[in-house]
């Protein structure tokens, strides 16, 4: 199993640009998550999904959108990039809500 | 409240024990976890403890849970340079159809050779 894969690894965006961060898991997990990690701030949950076709907001959803058309894929969309979205983004998946979360390697995004 | 708090930094000498502390505010937590993040990587689960347990030992790792004080700790015996990483505690809460995992701010462990 490849586990959780994310692309791209790095990206620089200009203010106002859009992009999609890709996340795929091959473990047939129901739950998938998007987090952002800022220095000294821990992980903040952006969006999560409990299964294909079901998504819900986390703590910091503003400026982001997600979709879950398949069990495997959970892309995160930034529509109008802002400097405040400069961060490291992690995708994770788990079998159930209380089960171990498996994390991807992260995407380092800079918005200038 | 559902904040999970940790001190930001801990430095220890190789061979010593490390103790990383965490406090949480939600008494309905049912599972508590410790994750490790190595540089440039995602988080990996180290260990977890059920809320009805006081202690769990797994090789060099000992987890202590004080439910009265809402305090969780991770002790690493014989700390090695490979243990240098950021350690996150996390709590799982499930109540009335609502469930979530909240991560702490992370403690950066530096092991000095």
What percentage of amino acids of chain B are in beta strands? over 45%
Global morphology of chain B: globular
- State the helicity of chain B in percent bands: under 10%
Percent range for β-strand residues of chain A: over 45%
Rg over CA atoms of chain A: 13 Å
**How many helical elements of chain A?**
0
Determine the most extensive contact between two protein chains.
A-B, 17 and 23 residues
Biggest sheet record of chain B: 6 strands, mixed
Number of strands of chain A: 11
Helix percentage range of chain A = under 10%
Overall pLDDT of chain A: 95
Give the topology string of chain A: H per helix, E per strand: EEEEEEEEEEE
**What structural category characterises the helix and strand content of chain B?**
mainly beta
Main pleated-sheet profile of chain A: 7 strands, mixed
Structural class of chain A: mainly beta
Shape of chain A: globular
Tally of DSSP helical segments of chain B: 0
Give the strand tally of chain B. 11
**Oligomer kind:** heterodimer
Give the termini distance of chain A in whole angstroms.
36 Å
Q: Low-confidence stretches of chain B at least 5 residues in length (pLDDT < 50)? A: none
SSE arrangement:
The complex is a heterodimer of chains A (112) and B (113).
Chain A: E1 4-7, E2 10-13, E3 19-25, E4 31-37, E5 43-51, E6 54-57, E7 64-66, E8 76-78, E9 87-94, E10 102-103, E11 107-111
Parallel strand pairs in A: 2-11
Antiparallel strand pairs in A: 1-3, 3-8, 4-5, 4-9, 5-6, 7-8, 9-10, 9-11
Chain B: E1 4-6, E2 9-13, E3 18-24, E4 29-37, E5 43-50, E6 55-58, E7 61-66, E8 71-76, E9 85-95, E10 98-103, E11 107-112
Parallel strand pairs in B: 2-11
Antiparallel strand pairs in B: 1-3, 3-8, 4-5, 4-9, 6-7, 7-8, 9-10, 9-11
